[in-house]
Amino acid sequence: MEADRHQGRAGVLAQKSRQLEIFANSSPADKPTENPEVAKRVASYLSSRCRRPVRVVFTDNTSTMITVKRESDYTVRLHHMFSDAPSGVLNALAVYLKWPRHRASNEKLSRYIKANGSLIKPARRRARELTTRGEHFDLKAVYEKLNARYFNGEVTDEITWGRPLRGRRRRSIRFGCVDHEAGVIRINHSLDAPFVPEFFLEYIVYHEMLHCLVETRLSQGGRTLSHHSDFKRRERQFEHYRDAVKWQNENLHRFLGKRGR
Questions:
Q1: Looking at residue 215, what is its pLDDT?
Q2: Same domain as 201, residue 177
Q3: Residue 17: partners with Cβ closer than 8 Å, 6 or more residues away
Q4: What is the per-residue pLDDT across 129-158, written as a single tens digit (0 to 9) for each?
């Protein structure tokens, strides 16, 4: 959860660690996999459907499954799960190359990626000790209270304080995030402060716990949405939602190292 001082309601922005990024418009630094013959076959099929040259590179990326560079021809970087994709999925991919906002094709590609999620290798991460007890708040106690009250104990991710940030001024601050690959909710250490009311910390933890259960959706433009209408509806079910949003808007400057107006 990230708040920006330029937003009327300190907004909540999607974070890369929290969800699988399906589409992109430029080439990321992913590593190609060796499969030249299959790449040529898929490229030929897509070229015939798009009626323009298509170059295909298969990757083993862990976050971006489809990347397209659109110039006079198309350069497409695909996760290797597409090397065995049926013609219906390749047809949807061809439509996406030409019309990125085509809803039915985007939904078909999203379903295919979700169904083949087991082929995506988890990113390697260093094991890190979890810290829940702060100077003023115990995250474990907050987490267990919310899990029992709002989620029937269904949230299984762990929780920890993030690393403390040293004194530098910022234009925005991320109060929390969920690392799905590690199964860990991370809460900004700056919230472990005497001036932070408990209901606001609970709101941040509640928001991140929602991300553990509420699935992302795909917009008509092919972008993943984590804060869609259903998520916002459930977010407003938090008992102190209005008070938390109000307090955040009034006190955001205290986290950014700026004096309030």
A1: 82
A2: yes
A3: 177, 178, 179, 180, 181
A4: 789 999 999 999 999 999 999 999 999 999
Side-chain half-sphere CA neighbours of 12 within 13 A: 21
Query: Per-residue pLDDT for 89 more than 90?
Result: yes
Q: Nearest-CA neighbor of 146 among 16, 244, 15, 216? A: 244
Q: Provide the domain limits for residue 149.
A: 2-19+124-256
Number of structural domains in the chain: 2
- The answer to whether 192 and 233 have CB atoms below 8 angstroms apart is no
Any bridge partners for residue 174, and if so which?
2
| CATH number of residue 214's parent domain | 3.30.2010.10
Q: How confident is the model at residue 23 (pLDDT cuts 50, 70, 90)?
A: low
Please state, rounded to an integer, the average pLDDT across all residues of the chain: 82
Amino acid, res. 240: H
Residue 82 CB neighbour total at 10 angstroms: 24
CA dihedral 103, 105, 108, 114 (to 10 degrees): -80
Q: What percent of the chain has pLDDT over 70?
A: 78
Burial class (CB in 10 A: 0-12, 13-18, 19+), 56: buried
Please count the residues of the chain: 261
